[in-house]
Write a structure and sequence with these properties.
The protein is an alpha+beta fold. It is 38% helix and 23% strand. α10 packs across α11 and α12 packs across α13. Bound molecules: magnesium ion. It comes from Desulfocapsa sulfexigens (strain DSM 10523 / SB164P1).
Length: 359
């Protein structure tokens, strides 16, 4: 099965910042930060490659970013615009395969196995997609080509920006052997630390442990690490056709502004959608909150995680953050809704708690 799978991972380069630079030529070639402000409030949502040269990264505090690069330019995120560009990009992908699994606005897996016979042909298609994205949208992206999702994702990161990397099956093991453990999918800061404490610094170090040991250290994710260190990842590319989202909403008998009551209602909704996920054995990467104010104005707020979530606590954590960006609690509201989208099959995914402390 492995030998004739051709999986692409395509990832836009510094997406939000690149969109800003494309739309505003005066930002071109400058250290640009999307999110936060020059007074040092907020966090960096994305930054241009010019800003990265100063050590600026997404999720860094704006205060720190200003210290690293005092002349950096801050712009406010324009989510709607990024979505618009994202749709354009995904439309291009669709010409090459019906099997597309977006991970966020700016990256997706494509399974092109059914109409490709060799890794070389798959690589040519990846190159063609990169060229189409550049000419039709105006942005660069990087692509990884391999025989499974994990390796395709590792590959797309290897020659960023504007690069293409192919990892054929006979090169996978030697590459994984020397791949720093922090580059493994699902290994965040906390897991990386734990790996280091076990003497695991590179892919080859995982091979010293058997599956049972790794499961003991890392829970279910241990089994996943065991396999990917050996280049094994049979997760399918999950296109979302047929199960786009799971959602529920409720209208109140009388409008409310009591935050405790709102919280209680949200929890009931979160429990319902959690049940929906369990029925379908799904996780979701996108959580959307819908709030309708007393005057019938409706707002929606979404957030997208890099790893699917599936528990009521995770859904609530996200929902609470979204709620804070609305006027709920300040003005009366008449409806609340939660929906989950970007659904993926959890039975084939690594668990979500990877980045929680272990002890
Ligand atoms: Mg990207």
């Amino acid at each position: 099965m492995t030998e004739n799978r051709y999986i692409l991972h395509i990832d836009m380069d510094a997406f939000f910042a690149s969109v800003e630079q494309m739309d505003n030529p005066k930002y071109g070639g400058r250290p640009l930060i999307v999110g936060g402000n020059p007074e040092g409030r907020g966090v960096v949502a994305a930054c241009s490659y010019e800003a990265r040269k100063f050590g600026i990264r997404s999720a860094l505090s704006a205060a720190r970013a200003v210290k690293l690069c005092p002349h950096a330019l801050f712009v406010r995120p324009r989510k709607e615009r990024y979505k618009e560009v994202s749709i354009q990009i995904m439309e291009i992908f669709k010409r090459y395969s019906p099997f597309i699994e977006p991970l966020s606005l700016d990256e997706a897996f494509l399974d092109i196995s059914s109409n490709h016979e060799t890794m070389e042909a798959a690589a040519e298609t990846a190159e063609e997609i990169r060229s189409r994205v550049f000419h039709e949208v105006g942005l660069t992206c990087s692509a990884g080509v391999s025989y499974n999702k994990f390796l395709a994702k590792v590959a797309s990161d290897m020659k960023k920006p504007d690069g293409l990397t192919v990892i054929p099956i006979d090169e996978a093991r030697s590459l994984l052997d020397t791949l720093p453990i922090g580059k493994f999918f699902g290994v965040g800061r906390v897991t990386e630390k734990k790996m280091h404490s076990l003497g695991i610094h590179y892919g080859r170090d995982i091979l010293r442990f058997d599956k049972a040991q790794l499961i003991r250290f890392f829970g279910k994710a241990g089994a996943f690490f065991h396999d990917i260190a050996r280049g094994v990842d049979n997760r399918p590319v999950e296109s979302q056709k047929g199960r786009k989202s799971i959602g529920t909403e409720t209208t109140f008998h009388s409008d409310i502004d009591d935050i405790d009551e709102i919280e209680k209602i949200l929890r009931d909704l979160a429990l319902k959608v959690e049940q929906g996920l369990q029925n379908k054995s799904c996780g979701a990467t996108t959580v959307t909150l819908k709030v309708r104010y007393h005057n019938f104005t409706t707002v929606t707020r979404s957030c997208t995680h890099s790893i699917p979530i599936n528990s009521v606590d995770e859904i609530m954590k996200c929902t609470r953050q979204l709620l804070e960006t609305t006027d709920a609690g300040k003005v009366k509201i008449r409806l609340l809704g939660i929906s989950l989208s970007n659904l993926t099959n959890t039975s084939l995914k690594i668990p979500v708690q990877l980045d929680l402390p272990f002890f």
